Amino acid sequence: MTDPEPATETYLDHRELLFSIVYSMLGSVADTEDVLQETWLAWTARTADPGSEPIDSPRAYLVRIAVNKALARQAAMARLRETYIGPWLPEPLLTTREATPLGDGADAAERADAVSMAMLVVLETLSPLERAVFVLHEVFGYAHTETAELLGRSPASIRQLAHRAREHVHARRPRYRADARLRRQVTERFTAAIAGGDLDALLRLLAPDVTLWADGGGKATAAGPRPLHGRDRVLRALARGRSVAPGGIDVRLTDVNGGPSAVLYADGVPFGVLVLDLAPDEDLVTGIYFVTNPDKLARLEGAEL
């Protein structure tokens, strides 16, 4: 194989960053890939134009293209969401080191939290611009002046958007990270209790204010048209779900959306993804995110877990 052209090499050098930013804005792997394709086409057209001015910062140029195309995509996604059946959850993203690297050290921890199911559900409640500003500043460390240039806004308006977004997010999701080993242990106990029909064990794992989001998209079994709140209601829904689930489910633990999760298989085909959120410093489950919409599981088929 020949070495890639400079324009291709530059794009590939930044693709991981672009993917992380856009997925954090959209919560959809499929739409993120579409945005990156559009970004690539715009980038190659710009670099192939002999009459164009030199690009001082390819990274800034690529991020600006990707972010603005993601903002345009959000508007189309919002229209589709109006007719979506039941709760909407992000498309599960494998985040093992081999599948989707998140970086190292503090960067990895920050990005893992940014793509967690719980965080993405909160980010869905922001306006598209607030979400873009929050992601760029809080997750990727862009200064407000840089964000203003990327989005074509004044620094003062960006600071105002950032303040509103930060207050909104922190009010709904306090900043803490449950220990990954504890999350894996609780996920194992949770799936074992469901598989064995042990309702007492499940009850001991659920926090009193637990919430269940079940996204079937009208194409698969789900708990109901809205999220369910409270231990008793969630326990009844889990018991009903177990009674109608396919037989012979194979549970595989892996990293999804930045943390330990369970992928459920029926006859070798992904049937669901289960992600749990824990209370700070406890092994009680406060959030259950269960994705069964087959459209959102298609990319997991054949993946190495």
Describe the overall structure.
Helix 1 packs antiparallel against helix 2 (29-48), helix 2 runs antiparallel to helix 3 (58-81) and helix 7 (144-151) packs across helix 8 (155-172). A six-stranded mixed sheet has the order 2-1-6-5-4-3. The chain has helices spanning 6-26, 29-48, 58-81, 105-114, 117-123, 128-139, 144-151, 155-172, 180-196, 199-205, 231-244, 294-297; strands spanning 206-215, 228-229, 250-256, 259-266, 269-278, 285-291. It is globular. The protein contains twelve helices and six strands. By secondary structure, the chain is an alpha+beta fold.
Short synopsis of the structure:
Strand 4 (259-266) and strand 5 form a beta hairpin.
Task: List the main descriptive attributes of the protein structure presented here.
305 residues, alpha+beta, 6-stranded mixed beta sheet, 12 helices, 6 strands, 53% helix, 14% strand, globular
Average residue pLDDT: 87
Amount of helix: 40-55%
Strand order of the largest sheet: 2-1-6-5-4-3
Question: Helix-strand pattern, N to C?
Answer: HHHHHHHHHHEEHEEEEH
Structural class: alpha+beta
Question: Alpha-carbon distance between the termini?
Answer: 30 Å
Low-confidence stretches: none
Shape: globular
SSE inventory with pairings:
Elements: H1 6-26, H2 29-48, H3 58-81, H4 105-114, H5 117-123, H6 128-139, H7 144-151, H8 155-172, H9 180-196, H10 199-205, E1 206-215, E2 228-229, H11 231-244, E3 250-256, E4 259-266, E5 269-278, E6 285-291, H12 294-297
Parallel strand pairs: 1-6
Antiparallel strand pairs: 1-2, 3-4, 4-5, 5-6
Helix pairs in contact: 1-2, 1-3, 2-3, 6-8, 7-8, 9-10
